[in-house]
UniProtKB/TrEMBL annotation:
Keyword Membrane tagged: yes
Alphabetically ordered keywords of this record: Membrane, Transmembrane
Top-level taxon: Eukaryota
Name by which UniProt lists this protein: Transmembrane protein 132D
Length: 43
């Protein structure tokens, strides 16, 4: 499962995303981290 609710919160920083997705599985958190890395690369 992904965490679609993070999209509007991304501007708040990764700490906010961790709070929103604190109940995510480890596999999903890895995907989220990869997503954030790609986001920073394109920014």
């Amino acid at each position: 499962m992904s965490c679609p609710s993070i999209n509007p919160i991304i501007l708040g920083g990764e700490d906010d995303i961790k709070w929103v997705c604190q109940d995510m599985e480890l596999g999903d958190s890895k995907e989220l981290r990869n997503y954030m890395e790609r986001l920073h690369d394109t920014a």
